[in-house]
C-alpha cells in the first residue's frame, strides 16, 4: 500500500530554535499534503493544507509565520516550526492524499521544546 | 466548536465480545466518515469508512453504521481481540474535499484477554 514517511520521529530542541519536519510520499505523488497536530489526549487538529507549487492554506488560529510549510515537489512537504517555544511541544502528523483518494498518514513527529 | 464528538474517552471489553465505539457529528455538510486506529507516538491507521449515502459498511470484524437523521455513527468490532487495544478516532470529511478531516477526541479501547 501507499506509504508516507515522516522524519524525524522525535526531536528535542531548545527554546528559540527552529525545527524542520519532513513528510514524503514514497510510492505515489501527492499534490496535496496535510499537517495535523495532536496535544496529549486530544484530537488531531488540522493545521494547514500544503499544495505543491503554491502557498499553503492555514486553518484559523494557526500562525503562518510560525509554521512555515513548503511543498516544493510532488513527494515532499516540510513543516518548519520557527522560534519554537515550550507551548509548541506536540505531536505533529502529516498526511497525503494517495491512491483511491485515501488519506495516508505519516508516523508522526514528537516535538519537545525545552 | 467540536463538530465531531466521541463522548466516551475509554472502553473496556472482554476478548471475544463486541466493542462498540460511538461518534456524533453536528455538520450536515460531511459526506464521508472514517475510523482510524492509533497507537501512542504513531500516525493513525485507516480502518474503515462509510459514505453518507450508505448506512452500513462491513469489512471483516469491523462494521460501521451511520444514522444520518441522528448524526451518529458507530464502529462495531466483533469478536474483539487484545490486539485491537488502541485509541480509535472517528473522522469526518466535508463534501468535495478529499483531505481535510475533522477528528473526534478519540476513544481508548482496551480488550482484556
Shape of chain B: globular
User: Beta-strand level of the residues of chain A, as a percent range?
Assistant: over 45%
Radius of gyration of chain B: 13 Å
Number of helices of chain B: 0
Q: How confident overall, as mean pLDDT of chain B?
A: 93
- Secondary-structure element pattern of chain A, one letter each: EEEEEEEEEEE
Q: Would you write up a description of this structure?
A:
The complex is a heterodimer of chains A (114) and B (113). Chain A is built from no helices and eleven strands. By secondary structure, chain A is mostly beta strands. In chain A, strand 4 and strand 5 form a beta hairpin. The radius of gyration of chain A is 13 Å and the shape is globular. Chain B is 0% helix and 57% strand. Chain B has no helices and eleven strands. In chain B, a hairpin with a 6-residue loop joins strand 4 and strand 5. Chain B starts with a strand and ends with a strand. The mean pLDDT of chain B is 93. The interface between A and B is medium-sized, with 27 and 21 residues.
Short key terms for the protein model shown above:
heterodimer, A: 114 residues, mainly beta, four-stranded antiparallel β-sheet, 11 strands, globular, B: 113 residues, six-stranded mixed β-sheet, five-stranded antiparallel β-sheet
Summarize the structure.
The complex is a heterodimer of chains A (114) and B (113). Chain A is mainly beta and 114 residues long. Chain A contains no helices and 11 strands.
What is the element layout, followed by pairings?
The complex is a heterodimer of chains A (114) and B (113).
Chain A (H helix, E strand, L loop, with lengths): L3 E4 L2 E4 L5 E7 L6 E7 L5 E8 L5 E2 L8 E7 L2 E6 L8 E8 L5 E3 L3 E5 L1
Parallel strand pairs in A: 2-11
Antiparallel strand pairs in A: 1-3, 3-8, 4-5, 4-9, 5-6, 7-8, 9-10, 9-11
Chain B lengths: L3 E2 L4 E5 L4 E7 L4 E9 L6 E7 L4 E4 L2 E6 L4 E6 L8 E9 L6 E3 L3 E6 L1
Amino acid at each position: 500500500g501507499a506509504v508516507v514517511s515522516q522524519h524525524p520521529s522525535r526531536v528535542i530542541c531548545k527554546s528559540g530554535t527552529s525545527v524542520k519536519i519532513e513528510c514524503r510520499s514514497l510510492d505515489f505523488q501527492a499534490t496535496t499534503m496535510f499537517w495535523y497536530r495532536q496535544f496529549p489526549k486530544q484530537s488531531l487538529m488540522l493545521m494547514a493544507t500544503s499544495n505543491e507549487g503554491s502557498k499553503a492554506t492555514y486553518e484559523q488560529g494557526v500562525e503562518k509565520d510560525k509554521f512555515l510549510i513548503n511543498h516544493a515537489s510532488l513527494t515532499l512537504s516540510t513543516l518548519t516550526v520557527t522560534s519554537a517555544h515550550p507551548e509548541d511541544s506536540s505531536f505533529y502528523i502529516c498526511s497525503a492524499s494517495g491512491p483511491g483518494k485515501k488519506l495516508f498518514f505519516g508516523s508522526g513527529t514528537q516535538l519537545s521544546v525545552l | 466548536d467540536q463538530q465531531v464528538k466521541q463522548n466516551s474517552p475509554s472502553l473496556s471489553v472482554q476478548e471475544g465480545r463486541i466493542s462498540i465505539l460511538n461518534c456524533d457529528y453536528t455538520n450536515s455538510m460531511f459526506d464521508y466518515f472514517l475510523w482510524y486506529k492509533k497507537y501512542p507516538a504513531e500516525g493513525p491507521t485507516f480502518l474503515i469508512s462509510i459514505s453518507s449515502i450508505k448506512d452500513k459498511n462491513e469489512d471483516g470484524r469491523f462494521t460501521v453504521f451511520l444514522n444520518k437523521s441522528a448524526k451518529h455513527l458507530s464502529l462495531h468490532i466483533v469478536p474483539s481481540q487484545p490486539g485491537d487495544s488502541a485509541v480509535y478516532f472517528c473522522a469526518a470529511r466535508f463534501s468535495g474535499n478529499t483531505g481535510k478531516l475533522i477528528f473526534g477526541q478519540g476513544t481508548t479501547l482496551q480488550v482484556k484477554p
